[in-house]
Amino acid sequence: MKKVCLFFALLISSSVFSQKKFDNVKSEILDGERRITIGLPASYEANPSKKYPVLYLLDGDYLFDPFSGALTYGVYWDDLPEMIIIGIHQNHDGERYDDSTIDQNEGLPFEKGAAFFEFIGAELIPYIEKQYRTTPFRIIAGHDITASFINFYLYKETPLFNGYICLSPELAPKMEIRIPEKFAKVKEPFFYYLSAGDGDINKIKEPIEKLASNIKVANNPLVNLKYDLFKDSTHYSEVLHSIPNALYHIFEAYKPINSAEYKDKIAVLQSGYAEYLENKYNTMSMVLGVDIPVRMNDFKVIENLILKNNAYEELEKMAEIANVDYPLAMLGEYELGLMYEKRGDPKRASKRYQNASQMEPIGDLNKDMMYEKIDEMNKLAQKSK
Questions:
Q1: DSSP for 33-55?
Q2: Mean pLDDT of the region 36-53
Q3: Does residue 234 contact residue 268 with C-beta atoms inside 8 Å?
Q4: Three-state DSSP class for 64?
Q5: 238-250 vs 60-76: helix axis angle to the nearest 10?
Q6: For residues 309-321, b (16+ Cβ closer than 10 Å) or e, as one string?
Q7: Average pLDDT score over residue span 263-292
Q8: What is the pLDDT of residues 233-260, one digit of tens each?
Q9: What span, in angstroms and rounded, lies between the C-alpha atoms of 136 and 310?
């Protein structure tokens, strides 16, 4: 079923990435140019003020289309945010091997590998961020030796990337020890995805399993780790299984409220339902670099739970959220009207519904509904006299 979904996503990828183009980045460090593929979201031109997270792909020659396909599918269902994708070409004249050159004794980038390491941080990223509207949230991915190579950015005091997608990495010496040591010191939320196929040879699979185990031992709650070992998969076929899992892992907090989140995280709360909603969207902004208004479906889920648990005071917080994200809409005034209605104060409720009726409709809220509410509250106010 997953393969069918990915195939579907590949077919419609052009609808989400309206612009797929190529560029040559001039590099003094590499003493030449490097070819890249750039995928811009469909909304890029229509929303000139919107900024996007960036996904950098090593082995971009063959990883670009699978990643853009999986992303297309997730964006279609609003499970993943739109992103800019940068695919770095490395399969011309054996570039990926030169780019990944390391000192086998030190386990660090060496000569051409050191130059490529500096090219990404000192030239490519500044070039992309100057040319395109980007958020500070960056992800990097690679496969095999390039998946190992991306881990070197973790060795820096301040890592360049917020998320790492390592697909069957052929780990450099000492990497399974150095990475967990780094993770133990992480002070900001961090995302790490690691995968292998059970068909991987042992010299690749065993260090990967040791790395995953050591990261767990480090036990830093700020490190969001997911490790997948796919059955009946080879070193190459596991990539198609991994890509959607990796993206969904990193952007777990972005997804709309689903039944599992509702049951496990929200319905069990004794209070603070509105605060949960606010924190969910603050996390999207502060951690993932994605700014979107609260989805109306998410808003209604929380509103219904508040009403179910008679937590009417939280409707005031819901009004605050609504007024920030939808300042011209009637949603905020409606929430205040609902709060006063449930508190048994029809006079104040009527006033708020009157205010709402002069504002823009949103969702299932409209002027006719507000007028009905006003009449209902006025009748209740008359009866209470």
A1: EEEEEEEE-TTTTT-TT--EEEE
A2: 95
A3: no
A4: helix
A5: 50
A6: eebbebbebbbeb
A7: 96
A8: 999 999 999 999 999 999 999 999 999 9
A9: 41
